[in-house]
Design goal:
It is built from 5 helices and 2 strands, in the order ααβααβα. The chain is mainly α and 101 residues long. It has a two-stranded parallel ribbon. Helix 1 packs parallel to helix 5 and helix 2 crosses helix 3. It is globular.
Length: 101
């Protein structure tokens, strides 16, 4: 996957408020970034590793923000995908979130 093409397509083609890349959200600076971002109480879609690992890694940050990682995080695994596959996976996740409204 071309990570820059991926995020640009997500930002331009999909109904997202923000699209950004963090080199390693599970590291200390990633924790700080996520803690700051979650203060706004937005729904979050993270494309990274396995969903269960994301929930484990980000559980504390969501709890500190008063959010429930199981309800407020949409975790998707985009490893080993083409750019097109990853964009479609994000699109499907966004459609699912919209259905829940």
């Amino acid at each position: 996957m071309d990570i820059w093409d991926f995020i640009n397509r997500v930002r331009v083609e999909l109904p997202v408020e923000y699209g950004f890349i963090h080199p390693q959200l599970c590291e200390e600076d990633g924790d700080r970034f996520l803690n700051d971002f979650l203060k706004a109480h937005r729904k979050v879609v993270i494309g990274a590793c396995a969903q269960n690992m994301q929930r484990k890694m980000f559980r504390d940050a969501f709890a500190e923000a008063g959010l429930d990682v199981n309800k407020d995080l949409t975790a998707i695994d985009v490893r080993d995908m083409t750019t097109d596959q990853a964009v479609e996976k994000v699109n499907a996740a966004l459609e699912k979130l919209e259905e829940k409204k």
